[in-house]
């Protein structure tokens, strides 16, 4: 598979958008391999993802952005351009639980996630051993209410130093400050409930208490509001009266692994377009 | 299939319960066709359902209760006794939407629900025509904040008059008063969300706004607290950015029909045991 | 919602297809409300669905086909053109079971299926009563191995007479002849198994015998090969050892209703593109 | 949790079975923590699982079997007795794919599988490195049509030597001989299709060719007939036209991991009772 370029575009709906964007690719000799669009009529927004092969495309990479900008600006479009051979760098943040971490590493090794994982950050030393096993740097940054600001500064410094594109909170279990999120907005979190049910702490315990018959997990982008960010993926599993809290936690682990991995995968493939509090996931 | 008797029992956990209950059936010549039990170790409660054939059972029906009581009382057990040939009578309460009503009638006609449906109550006249079609009495009891108490009295009188065992709120869309529920506690409601997400009004609109990837429906017993009663059944369906609110409502209709029908069915089969805010559904 | 036109196109993959098709719409003043495409790289085929508003479109309806043909022919494209305000006419074929029939009628009445249902054909007289109830013509065409050819001629004549666009086999339970299918190829069938498991008769019985833990239903276009046509939709439900054959049949009914309705709906919305033995369903 | 004993019993249905078995436990001072039963009326067979705490049970372990036999024999019952603190020993057999192997090891380490994994056998040397990483013995036993019998003898010898209770074929991709299975019948296999669809080789390729909309995986006990053994667990996942064979394989991996792990778990908990070609899984 040769390298591809992908445009993610959102702009006010109007006639001719598909034609204009497709013409831009075609006029420059590009071969579209994936194109999908969606119009949100409620807000009058057109959203599209176009992916084309760079082989045979006349424009050199560095000229694509300026050339496309000339089309996008009059349309008042917001857009991102990505190249498939630019491998994003992920920092995985963990606390004490290892299942999501191991799963992400396994999938990256199995080529399901096209990314590098050079960095693990944790507020606990426990999972250092896994980092060692896979040759990933592990930084133990203990955090509490008193030292939060300075420790977040340390974390941001690590992200810069390792040239990180995406932070994945793989059961990190702590809230990021508003300041952190505004400085580093590319963060995906896995919440162990079917949001918006059971926002916050101990969702499995609360799901058990409520006597629900199905539990879930939710992967979302992190915003300053706890568990309120745009949802990327959700999944559920059936439970019964036979399942106690420990069973919910065990069954939930499988959900968490699966949902987080799917969300990270579609993000890495530049299939997720955020607008307002919502996402379009172009499958 | 010959008639059966079913005991639903809950009592503090202790040694010998299975033996004692099984011996009661066996000593009287009964043949158990279904027995299931569950111990909730968190609260130390033993819950069981035993169903046996009445053919060959030595005790006449009217003596089963007093005989079993002699066993249950020393164990501090709560219990119910049901006979499979006693056909419960259902009142279906509706507002303007017909899908759950039609589905319940269809299933009753198809022998999926072992019950009679002699009565439909509605706060709107719209669905009278369906009642006529199937020969079911339809009572239009318009209700508002001013006349609620007297109209609920009228509703209770109808339930008595028609000898109703179970009220099914098939998209009734109004809240029953605390007083009503304490006078007639056997009420199943369908809520068009995956509880506890989106308690209250307009759940599909709110699910859309939140950008969830899965929607659900919940059937539960009605208590005085809105959408807080013990959950009997839940089901979900995947949605995408392509689904607007109208699509959620359409997809939700299928969920609502399915979930409500399943809940009513297991209730009618005496498979649901409520304790605290939870249910055990003995499948 | 104003009327729309929809093109379903498949053609050998090549550069510029998206641009060419979009330009055709745009150049004639059309506003695209849905566009989706898929490339099957294994066979080098480009498949697309484009829907645009007719309001403001400069070409009169009768000129769209010839105008588009001038674009399509050099590309060796196969295509269909549909207008959203042309309401297709469905004939539902049944045997003795009523659940799929009732469900389709109910959905049509609830505006979930944009079609007319003027005709029911059956090899049994049993469901005449339902046809009467809803004011649909019912033709009893008993069929056996001896009279098959002449009876199929009668059925074809009815389809012509009623101007039918689509036949839905809603548990018709008989095989159409090769001759019939070649004369009237627009036929959707519901098979009560998860194809290709349990092709042919008595799938629930055989699923029970095999001890599967999940059962399914499949909606597919009918071809001359039994249960081998292109699959439109499938769904499954979990079963357990507690479910006997009667339970499988009961649970299966819900699957059958749901799967058939979804398949008919996407077909009526011109979202299904068949190529080879496969379908693309543009959601 | 103190140690428990579990009886898995199947016997011809007759009056008093629940009472007899429960009395045996109660009379000896046992506290039942789980009891479930099922009657297969089609074949007149009663199947039950009873688990009770050994603490306070008067009979010493070595006398339970003879004592219970006195009850079971007149009833013509088949039965197994297991103790929860006897940790079964698993041999995992693999070929070249590591995902099921890694998943099983991870779950065993996470205490989801109460077993030891002292042995990995493979017909390829590739996964030796994983065995080393986790300190598990790895035996490379290359096998082909010529050397099958002698290599199976070697494999059987290894199972004896390592005192193995259960063989898990974690994508072993080769067929065991009738002779092997009769000598070592405790074997669980994961088949990468929704059986009975796509028995045999290349199920994902064939699922893609057939154009199914859902794929599945099946865990079953191995018998001499290929992919015909009693099914323990199945699961499915939805696919679309966008998924090519590589996507099916990727999505299937998650199914395979999940389904195999669940099947091994319920087997290890002595929750699976096989009769004929079927299983009862007591949840």
Overall CATH class of the largest domain in chain A = Alpha Beta
Low-pLDDT runs of chain A: none
User: Which two chains touch over the largest interface?
Assistant: A-B, 33 and 32 residues
What number is the mean pLDDT of chain A?
A: 96
Sketch the major β-sheet of chain A: 7 strands, mixed
Q: What is the CA-CA span between the terminal residues of chain A?
A: 19 Å
Tell me the quaternary state.
Answer: homotetramer
Helix content of chain A: 25-40%
Description:
Four copies of one chain form a homotetramer. The mean pLDDT of chain A is 96. The two termini of chain A are 19 Å apart. Chain A is globular. In chain A, helix 3 runs parallel beside helix 8. By secondary structure, chain A is an alpha/beta fold. Chain A is built from eight helices and 13 strands. In chain A, 44% of the residues are buried. Chain A is 33% helix and 30% strand. At the B-D interface, helix 1 and strand 2 of B face helix 1 and strand 2 of D.
Characteristics:
homotetramer; 283 residues; alpha/beta; Rossmann fold; seven-stranded mixed sheet; four-stranded antiparallel sheet; 8 helices
List the helices and strands and how they pair.
The structure is a homotetramer of 283-residue chains.
Chain A: E1 4-12, H1 17-27, E2 31-40, E3 45-53, H2 61-72, E4 78-83, E5 89-94, H3 99-109, E6 116-122, H4 128-134, E7 137-140, H5 148-161, E8 166-169, H6 178-183, E9 187-191, H7 203-210, E10 214-221, E11 231-238, H8 245-268, E12 272-275, E13 278-281
Parallel strand pairs in A: 5-6, 5-8, 6-7, 8-9
Antiparallel strand pairs in A: 1-3, 1-4, 2-3, 9-10, 10-11, 12-13
Helix pairs in contact in A: 3-8
